[in-house]
Amino acid sequence: MPDVLRKFAVPTTPSTDTASLLSRLEGVAAYQLEITGRSDLSPSLIEVILAGNIETLKALPGNDLMLAVPVEGGDGSFRRRYSVRSLDSAAGTVTLWIDTVAGGPGARWAQHAAIGSSIECIGPRGKVTLDPLADWHLFVGDLSFLAAASSMAEAIEAPGQAIFLFEVDEPDDLISPSLDDGIGVTVGIIERSGRSKSDPVGLMAGLAALEFPADEGHFYLGGELSVVAALKTALLQRGFETAQIHAKPYWRSGVANLAHGEPRKDDVSL
């Protein structure tokens, strides 16, 4: 592209209305679900239960739903993506864990939406799911990744091993997974202690201190964009292969996610 054209090139934002999403996203459907329950799991984590006709929703552990989160003056096409914590097709319910650390319209919806109100959800979405061939699984990130990490860990078959390394503002925010007896579980907590949410130093130090098990492992990184990028670079520098690492940024500190729910990452390599 000539320099004169590159200077004025602007990244395009994909349309987020329902028809556009369904036409371009393979294997998804739209569901109109009702909020039937909400509870505070920890100082910064809210559980929301949605109910409706979800017989066709086949979400893999780690998948998410695109929610048409209401915003003032919006047209109903503003999206935020949240991992499916659990799915009960027989009961017709989907459970989400939504953190309030970064704030924003999704967190406000989770905190204040009326029980009985409805919301459109599109899914399943996401490419990060459990590697069934790995002998051990390391989940690293912040609270926005906890629902996906817990869901994937619960899908590990014995004899397997799950290692959690999470950075939180409040230790009570990290809800430890309850896995089958045949699954080994190690949980490491990094307290943020006032550091910037885009500062990777805490998780980097925790990762450097870990002695990884023998055999074949897989890494799952999720959370703030800059932190996820730094963690992936550190693992590659330690000699691990790209195929062993799933890296998923859920949000970006100081920058609102785009209208389709993804953080802006055009200037960060992942």
Primary descriptors:
five-stranded parallel β-sheet; 270 residues; 11 strands; 6 helices; 18% helix; alpha/beta; disordered N terminus; Elongation Factor Tu (Ef-tu), domain 3; Rossmann fold
Structure description:
The protein is of the alpha/beta class. The chain has two domains: about 20-125, Translation factors (Elongation Factor Tu (Ef-tu), domain 3), CATH 2.40.30; about 135-250, Nucleotide-binding domain of ferredoxin-NADP reductase (FNR) module (Rossmann fold, 3-Layer(aba) Sandwich), CATH 3.40.50.80. It has six helices and eleven strands. The protein has a six-stranded antiparallel barrel. The radius of gyration is 19 Å and the shape is globular. The chain starts with a helix and ends in a 19-residue tail after the last strand.
